[in-house]
Design brief:
Chain A: This is Sugar ABC transporter permease. Chain A: Its main location: membrane. The complex is a heterodimer of chains A (276) and B (319). In chain A, 73% of the residues lie in helices and 0% in strands. Chain A starts with a helix and ends with a helix. Chain B is built from 15 helices and 2 strands. Chain B has a two-stranded antiparallel sheet with strand order 1-2. In chain B, a hairpin with a 7-residue loop joins strand 1 and strand 2. Chain B folds into 2 domains: 58 residues, no CATH class; 233 residues, Orthogonal Bundle (MetI-like fold). Classes of the chains: A mainly alpha (276), B mainly alpha (319).
Amino acid sequence: MTRRVGRPLILAALVAATVVFVYPFVWLVSASFKPRGEVFDNRLVPETFTLDNYVQVWREVPMAQWLGNTTLVTVLAGITVTLSSAAVAWGFAYFRFRGRGLLFGLVLATMMLPGAVTLIPTYLIWKELGFVGTLTPLWAGNLFGSAFYIFLIRQFFLGLPRELFEAAQLDGAGNWTIFRAIALPLARPALVLTLLFETQAAWTDLMRPLIYVQDTDKFTVPRGLKALLDQYGFGGEWHWEIVVTASVIATLPMILLFFAGQRHFVQGIATTGSKG
Amino acid sequence: MTTTTAAPVAAGPVAPTAAARSRSRRNLRSALLFLSPWILGFLIFTLWPVLYSAYLSLTDYDVINDPQFIGLENYRAMATDPKIALALTNTVVYTVLAVPLHVAGALGLALLLERAGRSSGFFRTAFFLPKMTPPVAVGVLVLLLFNGQNGLVNEALGAVGIQGPYWTTDQTWIKPALVLMSMWTIGSTVIILLAALRQVPSELYDAARVDGAGFWRRTFAVTVPMISGTIFFVVVVNTIAAFQMFTEAYTAFFGSGNTTYANEAALFYVIYLFQQGFENLNMGYASAMAWLLFVIILAVTLVQLAVSKRVVYYEGDQK
C-alpha cells in the first residue's frame, strides 16, 4: 500500500527538484538570447530572439583570447598534475622503503592545510621568478603533483595485482618501463578521473587569475567574466545581457566536459566519500 | 668435499643480507626518483611557504620594502580590528546556516534517488550538473536570480503570494541568498551520500519493516546510523569549504566596479584576507590572518572529530 502511493510521490518530488536544479541554466541560456530590455522578463522562451549579445561580447572583449588562455592553462594544468601525481603515487604504491608510511602521512597532512596559509609566500615565489603577469603560475605548481590526486591514484595502483609487476621485473623490465608500459595503462580510469577533476578546477578558478594576471589579454574566462561584471553589471552601465552571455560562454565547456566524462565523474565522487 | 659445500653454506647467511641491503638501497633510490616531484613541490610550495608565512605574520610587509619585524603586533591589531570580528561573524553565520542545510538537503535528495529505481541516473545527473558551473558564474547568478525587483526567486515567491526581500542589497538577506544559492551546488554531496546508502544491507530494512517500523522510523533508526561515517565526512568537508568561502561572494559583492553596494554582510574571512594581502598589500597582516584561519579550522575539525567518536557508527565497532 505505502509502496504504491509512495512511488509517484517520490517521482513527483524528484521532478520538482530537477526543475529547481536545471531551471537556472535554462534561465541563463534563454536570457542570453534576449535583447537588453527583456533580460529580466523571466520568460522561458525569449519574446524577441537575438544573437546580438554573443556578437557584442565578441566585439567588446577579446573572448577568443580568453578562451585560448583558459584552454592552454587547463590543458597544461591537467596533463602535468596527472603525470606527476601518477609518478609519485607509483613511488608510494610499488616500492618498499623505510619511512614510507610516514612520508605518505605527510602527503595526506598537506591536504589539511588551508590554501590561505601558503597563498602569500607562493605569490612571492612567482614574483621572484618573474612570472607574475604571465599564465605560468596558474598551472606550473601542478608539475609537483597534488596530494588528493596522489592519494586517489595510489589507491588504484594498490588494487592492481602485484604479481603482474613482479613478473615483468623477472623478465628484465626496468622500473621506468614497468611504470610506463604496465602500471600507467592499467591505471587509466584513475588518470582520466584526475584529468577530469583538474580540468574542472583549472577552468573555473578565479582566485589565482585575480592574483597573478592584470592585463586583459592574459585573462582566463572566469577572470574576464568578473571584469565584465564589474564593468557592465555595475559601473553604472547595467548591460546585464553581456554578463549573462559571458556566463553562458564560461559555463558551457564544463557542461560538455561533464557529459563527456559523466560515468567517471559520478563514480569518482562516490569513491572519494567512501575513502573518508 | 666438505669444504666446498661448507663454503656456500657459511656464506649463506651473509651474502643474501648484503644483496638484500643493496636491493633495498636501490629500491629507495628508485622510489625517490618517482617521489621527487612531490618532494620538491613539498619543500618549495608547502614547507617553505608555511615557515615564511609564519615569519611574515610577525612583520610589517608591503612587498616593496623589506619585511619589518614587529613581533605579535599583527595579532594584537587583529584583536581590535572591527572588520576581523565582522568577517569572522559573517563566516561563522554562513557556515552554521549552510552546512546543516547542505547535508540535510543532500541526504533528502539521496534518499529519494535511492528509491527512484531505474530513473535515478537521470535525476542524479540533473542534481550534479550545477556543480560544474564556474563559481564566478554562480556569483553572477546570485545577483540575477535573487534580484529584489525582478529576479526569478522573488517572482516565484510572488506567485504564491509572498513579497520577497531585496536579497542582494538588504544586509539581512545577503547571507541567506548566498546560502540558498550554494544549495544549488550540493550535487557531489548527494552522490557521496547516495553511494553510502547503497551500501546499507537491505536485510536491515526488512528486519525493521517486519518490526513494524515506518519510513521515518527506518530512516532515523537504520539508515542515518548506518551511514553516519559518511555523513560525518561530508559535514567536515562542507565545513572546511564554507569557512573558506570566497569566489561566489567576492564575484557578487566585491571588486573594482562594485562601489554602490553596502556589502559588509558578505565580507567573509578569506575575502578580507585577500583584500588585506593583495589589494592593500598588508602581507604581514594577511599572513597573520591566514594562521588564525588555520587554527580555527583545525580546532573546529578536531571538535567535530571528538563529537563523531560519540555518535558515529563504524562497521565492526563494539557498540
